[in-house]
Amino acid sequence: MSKIIYLDNNGNYPALNCVKAEITQWLSYYSNPSTNNKLTKSVQKRIADAKKVVEKFSGSSQFECIFTSGASESNSIIILSHVLTWRTKSKKSRTLPHFVSSSIEHKSILLLLERLKLAKLLDFTLVQPNSLGQIERKKLHSAIKKNTVFITCMAANNELGAINNIPTLFKGIRKSIFRHTDMVQLFGKYRLNLNKYNIDGASLSLHKFGGPMGFGLLFIRKTIFPKLVGPIGGTQQGGFRGGTENIPYISCLTKLLPIIQKRINSKNKHSIRNRMIKFIRGHYTTHNFCDLTGKGMNSNQDKKKIDQPDIVLFNSPRTKDQLYNTLYLAIRTKDMCNMKVRDYLGKHKNIFIGIGSACNTSNKKASHVLSSLNVPKSIKKGILRISFDIHDKYFERNCEKIMKTIIDTSINFKSN
């Protein structure tokens, strides 16, 4: 296959042409939006226009929209803001604020919580997912303490494609706790109304749905925003996140979001993923990971001799619980090494996929998501993540053929 088959869209979705054109156009503007002169008016108006487009797209009239360098920054500054607010404004500042999160969150959240705990600035509890990679409401609520001030749970996991029902998860949480969600994998794929989403804050990155890399948004409920201490010095963006606004990137929102809105309205978004699963089950020995879980799974699965290749699907029985563009699976063979297979497919087949964990599972960078699910090494080393663009007509026509190439290459691969 000479054509590039790009199947790592959860990592980065290529920027749309309208985004490139808009950024190029606004690079020629040289007035700082913080100054007050005739040249600045058009720049300030562009910021206001972009915010209106974002509000209409996301149903976020009850939220302040903060421009950031991406979801990692958005996640970080909303956590830091709550630590600073607790330390400077709370009557209980001598005690540590308590945070609740899940063990499968993005590293920007998990590593920051660890560092702040090490610095004795907070305490936190991590909730483990079920075998489908979802967080259960009962477990989440049981982690809440008297001094809990912040709770965060991702809307959809970038590896597994598992979707959490955030409005249901956060229902009944006391109002004094800030409810935050990492919405990176959901925003731009699904129709959302943040005003009705039962949250106080959300983070996202534009490069996950056709925007530029290094640009994101942070939503904060307007009634809460004035009470928070800004973690980055400066007067811009209400003093919460200082720094000159990135006008070329902000401006591209006015072109990008109307196009994404039309795409969101398209029907049968799950059809390609369903076809791929049907093909796999019809041509290969297949198991669902959730059916393999149980007492002693780790030791039994790793000790089991692999006589015949098989495939393990990380797949919820309910379609609405899975990202429509993501297929997460493991191919089990004697010589399987997903890292080498990924590199081989890219070099020789022009097929570019993602992997959730390197086959060298002793590596500290091995997926924390798979570790949270207690995935055994025999499955871990065969993990492949296929995240595709449902608007790619070539892939839509040839998805079964491409999956056959990926799977057969993996099964016949000989590790040297």
Low-confidence stretches: none
Helix content percent band? 25-40%
Beta-strand percentage range: 5-15%
- The secondary-structure class comes to alpha/beta
Shape: globular
Strand order across the largest sheet = 2-8-7-6-5-3-4
The overall pLDDT, averaged over residues, is: 91
Major β-sheet annotation: 7 strands, mixed
Number of helices: 14
Give the N-to-C terminal Cα separation.
24 Å
Query: Any idea what the radius of gyration is?
Result: 22 Å
Topology:
Layout: E1 5-7, H1 17-26, H2 40-58, E2 63-68, H3 71-89, E3 98-102, H4 107-118, E4 123-127, H5 137-142, E5 148-152, H6 166-169, E6 178-182, E7 201-205, E8 216-221, H7 247-264, H8 271-283, E9 286-288, H9 289-292, H10 297-303, E10 310-313, E11 326-332, H11 338-349, E12 351-353, H12 368-372, H13 377-380, E13 383-387, H14 393-412
Parallel strand pairs: 1-12, 3-4, 3-5, 5-6, 6-7, 9-10
Antiparallel strand pairs: 2-8, 7-8, 10-11, 11-13
Q: What does the model show?
A:
The protein has 416 residues and is an alpha/beta fold. 37% of the residues lie in helices and 15% in strands. It has 14 helices and 13 strands. The protein has a seven-stranded mixed sheet with strand order 2-8-7-6-5-3-4, sandwiched between helices. It has a four-stranded mixed sheet with strand order 9-10-11-13. It has a two-stranded parallel sheet with strand order 1-12. Strand 3, helix 4 (107-118) and strand 4 form a beta-alpha-beta unit. The two termini are 24 Å apart. The model has no long low-confidence stretch (mean pLDDT 91).
